Amino acid sequence: MIKSFEFYFDFISPYSFLAHKEIKNIEKKNLIKIIYRPILLGGLHNLHGIKAPAFIPAKAKHMIRDCKLIAEKNKIKFKFNSYFPIRSLNLMRGVIVAEEDNVKEYYIDNIFNAIWQDGLNLNDENIVQKILKNLNINPKTFLLRSTSSSIKDSLKRRTSEAYEKGIFGAPTFVSNNKIFWGQDRIEFALNEARK
Fold this sequence. Notes:
56% helix, Glutaredoxin
């Protein structure tokens, strides 16, 4: 029997998207549910005092090519979003609203696809509203709830808890209280979960 493990993610991270797609296959193959933990990656980086690779020009150039290579290898439809960086704050707050409404998995999958497969500009609230309507979610109510103090505080708390655990980037997996950072470490987290 394989135990579940945690997946810390932010929609802004293309590597989180690639990990998400791999997770779907792992869940089917191993009959487990991996626990999705939303965090605000920018907030996490600020807590650690580090700069994201995407904002270092030489690394950013490499990152785009790297993501494409991983996607091709794993047969994942992927398009580096030309509107990058997508401001993910409200989208990540939306994960918590979706969690409360029991549509978390559906919401996460569709937002990830909109950014990293369809290349949509989710910095545009009209596009976000259209996606929510297509998911049969009332956009006005949903977006209003995502700006409530309880949802804001929840995302801050979850990000702070990730920081306190020693998590510094996304995606990160936590399996048997061991941290595995990076999309290419998912197999190590899975092997740990088998112990």
